[in-house]
Each structure stands twice: as structure tokens, then as C-alpha cells.
Amino acid sequence: MAITPYPMLFGATLWEKLTAINGFNVVASNWAYFIEGGLVTLQLTVLSVSAGMVLGLIIALMKMSRWRLLSSVAVIYIDFFRGTPLLVQVMLFHFGILPIFIDSGPFLSGVIACSLNSAAYVAEIVRAGIQAVDRGQMEAARSLGMNGSQAMRYVILPQAYKIVVPPMINEFVMLLKDTSLVSVIAVMELTHRGKLLYSTTYEAAWVWGAVCVVYYIMTKTIAMMGDWIERRLATE
Amino acid sequence: MIEVKGIHKNFGRLEVLKGIDFHVAEREVVCVIGPSGSGKSTLLRCINQLETVQQGHIFIDGVEVTNPKTDINALRQQVGMVFQLFNLFPHKTTLENITMAPIILKGMPKEQAEEIAIGLLRKVGLPDKDHVYPAQLSGGQKQRVAIARALAMHPKVMLFDEPTSSLDPEMVGEVLSVMKDLAHEGMTMVVVTHEMGFAREVGHRVIFMDEGIIMEEGSPVNIFDNPQNSRTQSFLSKVL
Amino acid sequence: MKKHLKLLLVAMLVFSLAAVGGCAQKEPAPQPGAQTPAPAKVLNVGTQATYPPFEFVDKASGDFIGFDMDLIRAIGKVQGYEVKIQSMGFDALIPSLQADKVDVTISAQSITEDRLKAIDFSDPYFKGGLIVAVRADNTTINKYDDLAGKKLAAEVGTIGAAASEKLKEKDPKTQVRIFDGIGEAFMELEKGGAEGVINDWAVTDYYMQTDGKDKIKVVGEIFQADDQYGIGIKKGDAETLQMINEGLAKLKTSGEFDQIYKKWFSE
User: Fold this and answer.
1) Residue A145 to residue B150, Cβ atoms within 8 A
2) Which residue of chain A has the CA closest to B150?
3) Chains touching B by CB (3 or more pairs below 8 Å)
4) Which segment of A177-186, B161-170, C13-22, C164-173 scores lowest on mean pLDDT?
5) Same domain, C209 and C179
6) Which residues of chain B make contact with A147, given a CB cutoff of 8 A?
7) Is C24 within a domain?
8) Quick one: C49 and C86 in the same domain?
9) 3-state secondary structure of B21
10) pTM of the predicted protein model
């Protein structure tokens, strides 16, 4: 419909208009700063979820154990980390608990706090996944003579892992957003960078808008990857 | 072979087994019949301790099942169980289902286990179904694989918990046929079933249970043709 | 089903009442029975109440107290306004002004060129100046320049933070950890995560006499001593700007300003 030169003209005026806005310039000239922040956020999330998965599995098994001591410890652990705000946990670990043992910088404190937190949620996801496996499977395994651990290892867990994939992907996305909280201990992740850039430019709408966009790109990408994984598992 | 003495079992406040005494001799096929809720499946599951009892003792080949010191896992290797809902491992192929226990529990090398497994598959009539997954099998085929899986451990006794109750009628026969062959080979079997024809033809002894106790027991002829107990009579009149 | 629905509605009602009750962190309501005539106008004030001795929360009563708090209340009184104070993050002060959430901000804010781009300031009311704080057992850092190449902690958006960042020009190895409040920055210093904190001298001084006793000390001279605090006002709000400056002037003339100053800074 438009004459060929017209869209170019329109594009040119649009660009002129945009670059006239201070906020746009601030964001545009700092795009690498934001991307770096996004990568730190991603790094933080991947490390924390990975550690959380290992620890979460252990805690889930502890909770389901017949030994009261193990299951009680697991219950207390899960209750604490799910029952208190992550923000408070981050502050507590960075300023209160970790300094007793090590000199941990903000990133390490952040990973530790987020890992411990994630493990509590993962534990519940894993437990639900294990209990979702048909009871008959355990009975069949036991009736053949397998003990509890063998039944878990060869029969139950291989079936449970497919069940836990969707909630685990969800946990990944949730943690990715929750890592924004570690900005309070000065980790240079995305939110913190937004805060810093804002504090020197006062362009609230543009800066925070840009931060949102980067978060969205990350969460959407992961959600799409998650869908793909779920589809692959369903057809196996 | 199996001695069951004075068993009482409750689920919470519900008393399910109210004093059971019976025995199974070697090479004997005992069929347990009765209405649903009579406790027959529970009784069977007590034998390999899938259910625990509050009172009483159970012995298999002299080893006490109900003794906490007994290595129940080692004992269960000698007791094969076939379930109403098959309980095949869906994430493993037919062959893997059968070879899993011997490899893990007996340390059997894979080739040897597979050889035995293929032999068993042939025996239950499924020689070419070794590399399929349970989801691709019919109900009757699944149950036959389940029987092969239990036999792979070379058990002394086989327990069957309503093995054909979940099958479409046209597949019942193929499973009963395998069980019949097993019986004729001299396997000690305890079968909870509604298949009266099988009980009459293959069973050496029939036990009728109702409301948690054994009402009557005897040879198939006696039970089916000449039931003494009124409950037995009324049950049989409904099912036969 | 109906029973569950009723229960759900009751729960939602209880929660929403609680939420309304616990709304924005405002000043505690005045005591019942106080003889205050109904004021003509309300002045909404924004501050970050984690900065003793300028603005902080009284442990006993939960009220906002401090030099800035006394000052703004005095201005309000002398100009005929009821002062309502809200506490928020330091970096939320300017957007709150811009978005008309508050009328003025008073939070030991230094008057800087950057800030003047975004908001207006009243006449200066306090002479600032930065100082370096280090752990009490530190022997290697004696002045600002010694901090180059080290790990520093500071509060977001402060001129102390800017001064810290500037050290990166001297030595790119300098690390600056930025926190939301000065309290956290001091905690980072005390736990060994940072070796120095650059902050307003008055606040650092107060901290050293209270919670930071024996934990930190100051080194070097006060620098950037031409720094001055102002009361923040929305850009272009000439009416409020004039009102505040008038109030300040009145307090200075009457001597009340000096009284408030002496109360908090008796040196």
C-alpha cells in the first residue's frame, strides 16, 4: 500500500524521535551492560538449580526414609526454606551465617542461598514425583526380592524423573526471577544493574522496562525449551 | 512348604483377617476363592510380607516370614508373585523386565540372564516379543510376561493374586494355560481367583474364605459339587 | 462444595482486611486525645528511614526520628502543614517525587548536578562531606587514595558510591559493592567483604558512636566538603519550593534550626 520510500522515511523519523528521548539513549547505549547482567542471572540460576537438584533429591529421600532422625531433619529443612522469604535467607546467609565459616563474596553467597532454597522446593517436587509412580511398581520390585534402594534406583526413580520434568522447569523459571533478590547483597545480576543504572540516570521507565524485557526473553526461552523437552518425553 | 498359623490382620480399626490357619504342601496348587472383601488377596500378600500381620506366624520352607530378623529380601527371591494389574516395568523392554532381578540380585551375567529370559518367553508363548515395551502388549501378553518375570528368579513357590481378573475374556485362556502348565510341572502355587473352572481342573485343594476367615476347604470336587457350609453354597450359586 | 466456598470467601475477606490494614509504611497515627486542631494542608514527605542520625526508626515507639525528621516537621508546623512521612528505598525517592507520590523528600540528599536534572532542591540546609571508614583493626588504609584497587561497599545512589566508583579510574581492580542501605554496606565492611566504606561524615560518625563502636574507625580527612544537603521537590513545583525555603528561613531566623541542630550534632 505504501510507496517504497515512505516506510524508510517513517523509519527514519521514528529513529530520530527515539534517539531524542534520554531514556531510550540510556538503555540503547547500555544494552551490553544489560545482557551481561542477564548472563550473570542465568549463571546464578543454573548453578543454584543444579545444586538444588542434587541436594533436593537427597532431602526427598531423607524425608521418605523410615528413620525418624533423617525424616525429621528433612522436614525441618523444607519447612524453613519454604516458610521464610528468600530475601531474608539471602541476607541471613551473606551477613550472618557464612561469615563464620568463609569469606564469601556476594555471588557465592547468592548461589549458596538460592541453592539451599531451591533444594527445599525440589525436594517436594521429587517426593511428589516418586509418590506419583504407581504403587504396584514398588510392590513388583520388592516381591522380586529387591530392597528399597534397589527398587528406587532401578524402578521408581527412572519413572519419577519423567514426571518431575514439568514442575522442575517451572522451578527453574521461578528461581530465575527470584534471583533478582540477591541484588540486595550487591550481586551484579540483571536487577542490580538496573538499580545502578537507574541511580545514576533516574530514567525509571526505560531502565526498568529494559530489565523486564531481558527477563522476559530469558523466561520465555526457557519455557519454550521446556515445552520442547516435554514433547520429546511424551513421545518416547 | 507354606505354613500359616493364627493370622490376625487389621487395616486400622478394620479387622480383615480374623484367625487364619492353613498350609500348602510342596508341589500343591491351592486355590483361594470367595467374595470380594473376604481378605483373600490380603492373605496372599501376607505370605511374602507385602502386608504385615498383627498376630500369628507364617513360614515358608521353614523360614519364618513374620520374624523381623529374617532377611525378607532374600526370602522374597524364592517367592514369585503375579499381580492382578501386571505391574510390569514400563520403562524397560520385555526382556529387560525379566532379566532385571537376576542380574541385579544374583549377579548373573547379562548373556546368561537373557538366555534364560528368552527360554521363559518361549515357555509362556511369546518368543518374538523380547524387545517390545509393555505398552505395546495386550493384557494377556503382559500377564504372561509377568509370569515369566517371576519365574526368572527360579522361585520355590508362586503366588497369583487374581491374575485374570483384569483381562478381557478372550485373553483369560492364554494365561490360565500357562498357569496350568506350571502346575503340571510341579510348581507350588497359591492362586486367588474367580476362575472356578481353573480351580476345579488344576487345583489340588480349594479354600473358601469369607469375612476374614476360612469357611471351608477341601478338594475341588468336594467344594464345588458338595459344599457343606451355607455361605459356600450361596457364593457358589452366584458364581457358577 | 458450598461449605468450602464459604470458607474460601471468609479466608479471602480476612486476608484483604489484613492487607488494607498493613498498607504503605506510614507514620504511626497520632495518640487519641491529642489536642491538634484539624490542619489545613498535608505535606507528604518521602525519606529512607535507615540513616541515623538524619532519619531512622525509634526502637521504642516505631516513629521516624532524626535531624531531617525534626526539621521537616518544624517546617510543616511553621508553614501550616500536617506532615505525613513515608519511608522507602533511597533510589525510590526521586521517582516518587516525579510520580507525585510525595510532595517533598528529605533524606540527607546531596545537591548534585545529576540530581538537579531530575528534581529541584530547596536551599541547602546541611554541610555534608565524605569520609572513609575502615575496620577498627585495619592498618593499611589511611586515606581515600589508599582504597584504589580494593573492595569497597557503598549505598546505592549516594555521592559516597560515586566517589567509590571514581577510584576505578585510578585502579581498574577496584571493586564496588553497592547495597540498598548504608547499614548493609557497614555490615559488609565489618564481615570483611569490603575494606572501606565512603559515606557522609555525620552518618559514619553517628554509627561509630552507636552500633559500630569498636568495629570501625575513620581515616583521612573529610573530602568533598562543599557537599550540601537539600530538600527534594518535584521539578517545576515552584509553589512547594517557595513554601519550603520560606519555612527553612523562618526556622533559621527564629533559632529553632540551631536548636534542632544542637540536639543531634552536639560537638
Assistant:
1) no
2) A144
3) A
4) C13-22
5) yes
6) 73
7) no
8) yes
9) strand
10) 0.80
Q: CA A202 → CA A27, A84, C96, distances in Å?
A: 12, 33, 11
Scanning every residue of chain B, which has its alpha carbon at the shortest distance from the alpha carbon of A161?
B91
Contact B73 A155 (CB under 8 A): no
Model pLDDT for residues C221-230, shown as the tens digit of each residue: 999 888 999 9
CA nearest neighbour of A194 among A25, A19, A26, A12: A26
Per-residue pLDDT of C137-174, as tens digits, reads 998 999 899 999 999 999 998 899 999 999 999 999 99
Nearest-by-CA chain A residue for C187: A95
- Assess if residue A89 is contained within a domain: yes
* CA distance, residue A189 to nearest chain C CA (Å): 12
Is A22 inside any structural domain?
no
Give the CATH number, domain containing residue A221.
Answer: 1.10.3720.10
Residues C211 and C239 occupy one common structural domain? no
CATH number at residue C149: 3.40.190.10
List the domain range (segments joined by +) for residue C156: 130-223
Cell numbers found for residue A14: 521514528
Average pLDDT in the B83-101 region? 95
Contacts of C192 in chain A (CB under 8 A): 99, 103
Say whether pLDDT at C121 is over 90: yes
Establish if C31 belongs to a structural domain. Answer: no
Within-domain flag for A206: yes
Considering the domain architecture, whether residues C139 and C216 belong to the same structural domain is answered as yes
| B160 interfaces chain A, CB cutoff of 8 Å | no
In single-letter form, the type of residue at position A219 comes to: T
Instruction: Say how far apart CA B215 and CA C156 lie, in whole Å.
Output: 84
- Give Cβ neighbours of residue C139 (< 8 Å, ≥ 6 apart): none
* Interface contact flag, C191 A99, Cβ < 8 Å: yes
Interface size, chain A vs chain B, as Cβ–Cβ contacts under 8 Å:
55
C123 and C136: one domain? Answer: no
Domain that holds residue A107: 40-235
Q: Do A106 and C178 touch (CB under 8 A)?
A: no
A185 to chain C, any CB pair closer than 8 A? The answer is yes
Which DSSP string do the residues of chain A spell out, in sequence order? ---THHHHHHHHHHHHHHHHSHHHHHHHHTHHHHHHHHHHHHHHHHHHHHHHHHHHHHHHHHHTSS-HHHHHHHHHHHHHHHHS-HHHHHHIIIIIIHHHH----HHHHHHHHHHHHHHHHHHHHHHHHHHHS-HHHHHHHHHTT--HHHHIIIIIHHHHHHHHHHHHHHHHHHHHHHGGGGGGGT--SHHHHHHHHHHHH--HHHHHHHHHHHHHHHHHHHHHHHHHHHHHHHH-
The angle at the Cα of C153, spanning C148 to C154, to the nearest 5 degrees, equals: 110
Closest approach of chain A CAs to the CA of B150, in angstroms?
Answer: 7
Please state the domain count of chain A: 1
Same domain, C114 and C233: yes
Does any CB of chain A come closer than 8 Å to the CB of residue B25?
A: no
